[in-house]
């Protein structure tokens, strides 16, 4: 088999879309004649862990775990985050407006001492492991994936030294990522970060992105850009019980990290209006949020008077998250309200689509996510401020649910192209073009 080297900070037992993306690629690459080799830190600092994902790593995959330097572990200890069982968010968006001197100091250090990000201390160890492996294995291409975008610096140095084919996978913006706006960066730090981003984009043989909007953002500086979406693994859904169970509650559910910039006032007001004018809705409605939910979101819900209808559930392992998607009445899909939101296309949308559960989607009407919904034959995206349409959509879904206490699954349309096996096939096609 031909061999490819994948350098990824996030790998099981870490959890999240970035983990899913490359875990699934690694799982299906051997089906296309490629053997993945993986380099990842032995003890990284992760916002969430899902130890069940370790069982999904095929035994045939060689995974090299390296040392790393993690300044955020010290920050978490000093700020008390670890004591509460939580790690600090990578972007540190929670420091905005904080009165804590520890958080203010950490924000300045994070913004100006660790460029492009606080995981840059892993780069020397990843590089040493990669160089050692390249001397013993015949590798046809190196793949780096970020965030953290510091991971790409190892690919850059390997490219310079060995001239090996290099694919840089950009899952999010780099200098334009939303949380940089919260950090007290100096002009010198911003210029340094921009220079690193430009050099990586220029030097990579192929820049891979997860959405057309993100591709456009990088294309004027990269030699070549391509899109491979995040997707869903049919096996994850086949393993779960998919029978439609009758439930006495009409559950509007969200699964994942619910950020402050997803706090949509028109949504909460639409729900309040339905509760006030529809006794049946008042009796049966529940709002179920599973995962890491921003305190500002919970506060807003409480102030709006929806707290009696709210069910908060802790971060769930991936299998349980899929089960929630399948068992919910309606899945809430709010695009973050931030600059560049038209190009936001998370892995969540594809798993939501694969579940067949109806969706309430709120965001930019002409964004990449809206186009995916259209291709899949789903309800169109609703604008953030359109309370009337949000209320109507949710009310119509409830009326359809009420007679039998369930909603029919939405038939799959143009969803197969987003399956992990199909997307891995596309990745292999791109790797083959690099070898021509």
What this model shows, in words?
By secondary structure, the chain is α/β, with parallel strands linked by helices. It has two domains: 2-69 and 113-231 and 419-434, 3-Layer(aba) Sandwich (Rossmann fold); 234-401, 3-Layer(aba) Sandwich (Rossmann fold). Helices cover 40% and strands 15% of the residues. The chain is built from 16 helices and twelve strands. The protein has helices at residues 17-28, 71-79, 101-113, 123-136, 151-162, 187-203, 212-219, 234-238, 265-277, 279-284, 295-304, 318-327, 347-355, 368-375, 387-401, 420-434; strands spanning 2-8, 34-41, 62-66, 139-146, 166-170, 206-209, 225-227, 250-255, 285-290, 310-313, 330-334, 359-362. The protein has a seven-stranded parallel beta sheet, sandwiched between helices. A five-stranded parallel beta sheet has the order 10-9-8-11-12, with helices on both faces. β4 (139-146), α5 (151-162) and β5 form a beta-alpha-beta unit. α4 packs across α5 (151-162) and α9 (265-277) packs across α15. It is globular and about 70 Å long. Residues 82-94 have low confidence and may be disordered.
What's the quick description here?
The protein has 436 residues and is an alpha/beta fold. The protein has 16 helices and 12 strands.
End-to-end separation: 17 Å
Give the second-level CATH assignment, the architecture of the largest domain.
3-Layer(aba) Sandwich
Overall number of domains = 2
CATH fold-level assignment of the largest domain: Rossmann fold
Rounded to an integer in angstroms, the radius of gyration calculated over CA atoms is: 22 Å
CATH class of the largest domain: Alpha Beta
Low-confidence parts: 82-94
Q: Helices and strands: which structural class?
A: alpha/beta
Q: CATH homologous superfamily of the largest domain, by name?
A: Glycogen Phosphorylase B
- Largest sheet, described in full? 7 strands, parallel
* Biggest β-sheet: strands ordered side by side in the sheet: 3-2-1-4-5-6-7
| Count of separate DSSP helical elements | 16
Overall outline: globular
Helix content: 40-55%
Q: What is the H/E order?
A: EHEEHHHEHEHEHEHEHHEHEHEHEHHH
The proportion of residues in beta strands is 5-15%
Q: Calculate the mean pLDDT score and round it.
A: 91
DSSP strand count: 12
